Amino acid sequence: MALKIVFLGLVLFITPILCYKPVVLIHGVMTGSASMEMIKFRIEEQHPGTIVYNVNRFESWSSLETMWHQVLEIGMDIANISASHPEGINLIGYSQGGLIARGIVETFPNVSVSTFISLSSPQAGQYGAGFLHLVFPGLVKDTVYELFYSRVGQHTSVGNYWNDPYHQSLYETYSVYLPYINNHIKSAKSEDFKKNLLRLKRLVLIGGPDDNVITPWQSSQFGYYDANETIIEMKSQDIYMEDKIGLRTLDESGRLHVVTVPGVNHFSWHMNISIVDDYLLPYLD
Ligand SMILES: *[C@@H]1O[C@H](CO)[C@@H](O)[C@H](O)[C@H]1NC(C)=O
Ligand SMILES: *[C@@H]1O[C@H](CO)[C@@H](O)[C@H](O)[C@H]1NC(C)=O
Ligand SMILES: *[C@@H]1O[C@H](CO)[C@@H](O)[C@H](O)[C@H]1NC(C)=O
Ligand SMILES: *[C@@H]1O[C@H](CO)[C@@H](O)[C@H](O)[C@H]1NC(C)=O
């Protein structure tokens, strides 16, 4: 009897530690929630009781709808989820999903995220044939700016974060998403974007040199090309040095985790159990 009570006491004491705050998963471009099921399964298996929401909007071709449209629609869903979990949630976005997730964190003050994990997402943009050809096999990276940097080209998600280092003034003129959420272009929303991102308890940026799709791969950690395609790491970028969206503040307060994992191809991040065990679970709140 006494043993039973001790045991029960232990279980009650341990359960809150084993079980995380709810986790919301956002899938990548040209796929859907099914591609994120392994992560959901593994979290639930390792930490029973954790509620995992796997966003099933904008799957397959509709993942090409504009970034703002996806941010607003998925953001409304997550605001609802967040409202029923006032203790906060974890948010994990894979590939394009991580860039949608950041837009949501910056835009919705009523989405309360403790940990946000960006899993190989083009946070500083994309300039590479690998990614382009997933969606548009016929297009050429050197000239696709002519399409993307136009009003029509901005009707696709990929156009919204295409960041051509050789055509920066066109990028600034036409791109309606990335330069804004990066506070590269100041807007009426800039202060809110930063304030909202700074509410995070943890920002985890995961990427690696063998990704082969996110180009440059450092974009997953806010590094990017300069005008000559030389990589400038995050800490030497204006977005960090001038603390435009709060990255430096997050870093200086120990809340920014930059994680580099070699040996992982872009299509393996969300399929690899050791990535979940070693790089996702330890950061969940
Ligand atoms: C949010 O929740 C409310 C009330 O529970 C519901 O009426 C509404 O449709 C939900 N909205 C979304 C986007 O799920
Ligand atoms: C969250 O905020 C948005 C506007 O910022 C609002 O439209 C939405 O209804 C809110 N959702 C909840 C669940 O409070
Ligand atoms: C790019 O390279 C050219 C030739 O090497 C050089 O003249 C130019 O200053 C470089 N531009 C930048 C932005 O580094
Ligand atoms: C899985 O992830 C580990 C790192 O945790 C990496 O070393 C390994 O190469 C990955 N395997 C695949 C198939 O991507």
TrEMBL record:
EC number: 3.1.2.2
Record GO cellular component, one term: lysosome
Keyword Hydrolase: yes
Predominant location: other
InterPro entries linked to this entry: AB_hydrolase_fold (IPR029058), Palm_thioest (IPR002472)
Gene Ontology MF term list: palmitoyl hydrolase activity; thiolester hydrolase activity; transferase activity
Keywords, alphabetical: Disulfide bond, Glycoprotein, Hydrolase, Lysosome, Signal, Transferase
Zinc-finger among keywords: no
Region forming the signal peptide: 1-19
Protein's cellular compartments: Lysosome
Pfam family, one: Palm_thioest
Similarity comment text for this entry: Belongs to the palmitoyl-protein thioesterase family.
Function per UniProt: Catalyzes the cleavage of thioester bonds from S-palmitoyl-CoA or S-palmitoyl-N-acetylcysteamine (unbranched structures) but does not have activity against palmitoylcysteine or palmitoylated proteins, branched structures or bulky head groups. Conversely, hydrolyzes both long and short chain fatty acyl-CoA substrate.
UniProt-recorded name of the protein: palmitoyl-CoA hydrolase
Species the sequence originates in: Helicoverpa armigera
